[in-house]
Design a protein that fits this description.
The chain is of the alpha/beta class. It folds into 4 domains: 119 residues, 3-Layer(aba) Sandwich (Rossmann fold); 65 residues; 170 residues, P-loop containing nucleotide triphosphate hydrolases (Rossmann fold); 51 residues. It contains 15 helices and 15 strands. It has a 6-stranded mixed β-sheet with strand order 8-9-7-10-11-12, sandwiched between helices. Strand 8 and strand 9 form a beta hairpin.
């Protein structure tokens, strides 16, 4: 009988420098975000070290005193409590830095504290690498990882000095390429290859979407917003589908598409895009552009915001910036303040809702876990897509009754009257669908 393998917990400490231009609220929000990222990566964060400085230490990011404090915490025999267990501090696996640091800073810091150092960008890249599932997402993640590695290889080569160079050629004449130069060339070639693959996948995906929308006359609404704002829970509530719901940042990276349920006229597709995050590395924004471009193909965006987050305005700012970056800021948008049930008791929720609606008059304040509020949002979505529908009358002879199912599937039948010759239907639907029906079926019985 095979024994179950129990994965041992990994422990980490978080360290960050607060610069003069960063407020306490912004600083603490960023630290909380890094702790959530660490949780997604499987780390238990047991302590946080902070330091106020006018700038980062160029040699090892943190000042000498703070580096010594971290080293003593990690290397001296002491105990801390993690998840109810008393743990020896010498089992700390990593120091997580809430900024992007250079290889030299990371190496110097590792030497002093005695364990692995991961900066914020490396943490995010590792999460993306683990969670990407589709071929497109994996290619985009690999490009971002390679782009992150390339400049660090150059700096690492400088640190290595002459040892990083190896000459070739007959008799030792002529300058050969160093291992670092060869590796950089391989990285450039691989990035180019992946970019060509992504272009081909983008063309294929856009062609498939165009064919699908042309064939079925589908409307598309995209969920966008800050990661962990409850988008996947809302997606499941709106579509009645089983999509991954996890209390982790970047629990899913691949776009999920489902039909609005119960189905409406026109039939609406709901897509859940990758979540945004403050200080997302620029290379990742660029490499995930094709994933985020689901928002560009949508006729309506649901901007999902965590109503219980005191720093929700930061969520708004981040999402607006990224949407503008990909050109999706012109798409109509409904602000959905989700997780109102996380605010407090009924009185606190009511006060928060009144404040939000006063500040954002057209917003929706709700909980994705309350069916009645989900139903109201669904109706608001349907109303948006029905505003451009047209009405017409068509006559369906008894001999053509096999078309009844298709008509009811593609249009909203407002009224139906039957006589000896067939059925007179008053329908409402998208202009192209109604036009095809009126061309095929006259509005009155043929004589």
């Amino acid at each position: 009988m095979q024994k179950e393998v129990i994965e041992q917990p990994r422990y980490a400490v978080v360290a960050a420098v607060q610069l003069p231009n960063v407020t306490d609220i912004e600083f603490e929000a960023s630290l909380n975000e890094l702790r959530e990222l660490a949780k997604t990566l499987g780390y238990v964060v047991v302590h946080t070290f902070v330091q106020k400085r006018p700038g980062f230490d160029i040699t090892a990011y943190l000042g000498a005193g703070k580096r010594q404090e971290i080293s003593e915490f990690i290397n001296n025999e002491s105990e801390f409590v993690a998840n109810g267990d008393h743990v020896d501090s010498r089992v700390i696996d990593a120091v997580l830095i809430d900024h992007e640091i250079s290889p030299s800073q990371a190496r110097n810091l590792e030497k002093e504290v005695g364990c692995e150092v991961m900066d914020r960008t490396m943490v995010i890249l590792e999460i993306f690498h683990r969670n990407a599932r589709s071929r497109a997402a994996r290619a985009q993640v690999e490009i971002a990882r390679l782009g992150y590695m390339a400049p660090r290889m150059r700096e690492a080569a400088k640190l290595a000095g002459p040892q990083g160079r190896q000459r070739s050629g007959a008799g030792g004449r002529g300058g050969g390429e160093s291992h670092t130069e060869l590796d950089r060339r391989k990285i450039r070639d691989r990035i180019s290859e992946l970019q060509q693959e992504i272009v081909a996948m983008d063309v294929e995906r856009k062609t498939q979407r165009a064919r699908r929308q042309e064939r079925q006359g589908l409307a598309v609404v995209a969920l966008v917003g800050y990661t962990n704002a409850g988008k996947s829970t809302l997606m499941r509530a709106l579509t009645g589908s089983e999509v991954l719901v996890a209390n982790k940042l970047f629990a899913t990276l691949d776009t999920t598409v489902r039909a609005l349920y119960p189905e409406s006229v026109p039939r609406v597709l709901v897509s859940d895009t990758v979540g945004f995050i403050k200080n997302l590395p620029h290379g990742l924004v660029a490499s995930f552009k094709s994933t985020l471009e689901e928002a560009l193909d949508a006729s309506l965006l649901l901007h999902v915001i965590d109503a219980s987050d005191p720093g929700f305005e930061r969520q708004l700012e981040v999402t607006d910036e990224v949407l503008e970056d990909i050109g999706a800021n012109i798409v109509p948008r409904i602000r959905v303040f989700n997780k109102i049930d996380f605010v407090g008791d009924a009185a606190a929720q009511s006060e928060r809702e009144a404040w939000l609606k006063a500040r954002y008059p057209d917003c929706v304040v709700m909980s994705a876990r309350r069916p009645d509020e989900v139903a109201k949002l669904r109706q608001k979505i349907v109303t948006f897509f029905q505003q451009d529908l047209v009405e017409a009358e068509i006559f369906l002879p008894w001999a053509e009754q096999q078309m009844r199912g298709e008509i009811y599937a593609s249009c909203q039948v407002l009224e139906e009257n039957s006589n000896d010759n067939g059925s007179l239907l008053r329908v409402r639907g998208e202009p192209n669908v109604v036009e095809k029906l009126t061309l095929r079926f006259s509005p009155t019985p043929s004589s």
